[in-house]
Amino acid sequence: KILLILSNVTIPTVRQLMIVAGEPSGDAHAAALVNAVRATNSDLTFFGATGPLMRAAGVETTVNSDDLAIMGIVEVGRVFPRFIKAFRKLRDAAIQKSPDAVILVDWPEFNLRLAAALHRRGLKVIYYISPQLWAWRSYRKRNIKRDVDLVLSILPFEQEWYSARGIDQVDFVGHPLAGEVKPDFGRDEFCRLMKMDPRKPIVSLLPGSRLKELQRILPVMLDAAVVISKRNAEAQFVLVVAPSRSISETEQILANHADFEELKSRIRVVHHHTREALAASDVAAIASGTATLEAALLETPMVIVYRESPINWHVLGRLINTDHFGLVNLIAGERIVPELMQAEFTGVRLAEQLVELLHDRENHAMRKRLGEVAQHLGEGSASERAAKRIVEQLDNWSDN
Fold it and tell me: What is the model's pTM?
């Protein structure tokens, strides 16, 4: 009788997804995606390579990705065995658990190899936040066509780029930051908290989220601040420390700068309040990356900068095949934001660009253009759209 009763009971199948992200920005986007998928289908469970936000979202950790957020040939070379170990551990876990799909988030150098290893073993692969093949190493499009079943793109021009190359398994879901980048308080409150004068110009400095970026970019930004101070006695500066960096790391670089005593009374250090600082700023100098899109969404005029080690720039820089480096300019399709890369990135050049943007006419003109860029990024809820598309695809695969 018991067996007869049990035979008429449908036991729900718990579906499992593997998700892999390897950098702070990827960790944030992956965590938002996990939460959105769970809101769509609470029966799904996750495991994979996790950062702190993914772990907080309840993703089971197979590999801790905190120590794998490294850029550059030399830097990666030094810890290459760590990457090999992580790769093998994730590959073996996927083969053993056989998830309904593997979701790879950004991190192309690692994830494209993982996609190849898992797809050839029959696993379905979804890529969220497409590798920037339109910018460099476009030959890897064949890897996407062969090893990825669905690409969820976050930039508006990517779907057309892929389609022109015969790759149609691409959906644009919008950028995760669209509709989400809002300061918790305005300029007056920010200035009150930071003991600054809201009537005087505010220049924000965002040197990046990696230690090597901090070490290479911040000193040049400080050089620019010194030049600006001599030209504009009222200028105030905000140094924005990325959440993944520590105040102590930043203070050490400040203390070693030759002219820091001259700047000390005019610079404020901010941690965990990036959006508030950008919203309060008249202009900003920002290391190329996600923060430039946050500034665009807040319509904060900016100069995009970057400096790599000579060997990384020599090798990797030659592979870049776009007219622009900054995402803002790539989305706009033209150079609306000044870019200072490598040798062009000097304190004097940066100061000249920032001072020019402090003029009302130039400032207002760039704010208008940034507003246009923001519209191209979507209307918000990208994580929810991506989650809905993933669940739909899982249902389609299970039906077939």
Answer: 0.83
Distance CA 347, CA 266 (A): 17
CA atoms of 151 and 317, how far apart (whole Å): 26
Report d(CA 68, CA 21) in Å as an integer: 10
Is the distance from CB of 185 to CB of 160 less than 8 angstroms? no
- Give the HSE-up count for residue 307: Cα atoms under 13 Å, Cβ half-sphere: 20
Q: What is the DSSP letter of 110?
A: H
Q: Are 376 and 331 in contact (CB under 8 A)?
A: yes
DSSP state of 281: -
Q: Read off the DSSP letter of residue 15.
A: P
Mind listing the pLDDT tens digit for each residue in 248-261? 999 999 999 999 88
CB atoms inside a 10 Å sphere around CB 43: 10
Beta bridge pairs of residue 60: 47
Distance CA 16, CA 31 (A): 16
**Residue 12, CB-side half-sphere exposure with 13 Å CA sphere:** 7
Question: Beta strand 302-306 with 283-287: parallel, antiparallel or unpaired?
Answer: parallel
Tokens representing residue 23 in the block? 């950098």
The whole-angstrom separation of Cα 150 and Cα 189 is: 45
Furthest C-alpha separation in the chain = 90
Find out whether 275 and 291 touch, Cβ atoms under 8 Å: no
- Spatial separation of the C-alpha atoms in residues 138 and 358, rounded to whole Å: 38
What six digits make up the tokens of 14?
Answer: 């718990």
The burial of 374, by beta-carbon neighbours within 10 Å (0-12 exposed, 13-18 middle, 19 or more buried), is given as buried
Structure tokens at 287: 């290391």
Tokens of 228: 């600006």
Per-residue pLDDT reduced to its tens digit, 283-293: 999 999 889 99
Distance CA 355, CA 224 (A): 10
What confidence tens digit (pLDDT) does each residue in 65-121 have?
Answer: 987 765 443 344 456 788 999 999 999 999 999 999 999 999 998 999 999 999 999
Question: From the centroid of its chain, how far is CA 45?
Answer: 25
